[in-house]
Fold this protein.
Amino acid sequence: MGGGFAAYGELASRSMQREKEAELLFVGDEYRRAIGTYYENSPAGHKRYPKSLEALLKDERFAFNRRHLRRLYRDPVTGKDWATVEAPEGGIMGVRSTSAAAPLKSADFLPQDAAFEGAPRLADWQFVYGPLAAPTASK
């Protein structure tokens, strides 16, 4: 009977981790999308990343309140704040979990998350917005 409870406990634990990873993918993508709209909708064509995650809630670069994110979400895996990924030119270009746990999901990611394939830790899943490369002129 004890073995049955242990097996059930392991199954329940894995199921909970799968749910947390799915939520991590969803919320991380929400941050990536919000950072992208902040960057792409910069006034006067001076594209910049937000200096803080709070800037996604109230973009003070405009005369009216522009929101890129409804609220700041906690990291679903740790329950704590996200770690930020700094842009080379300054500002925040993404977020990542601080969890050192190994992910259960290791393949079959959406195209925007393809870099997560085979990552050894959840902290390696970085939800980063990078502007698309400018199209080259054809001759």
User: Anything to note?
Assistant: The beta strands are 83-86, 92-96, 126-128. The chain has one helix and three strands.
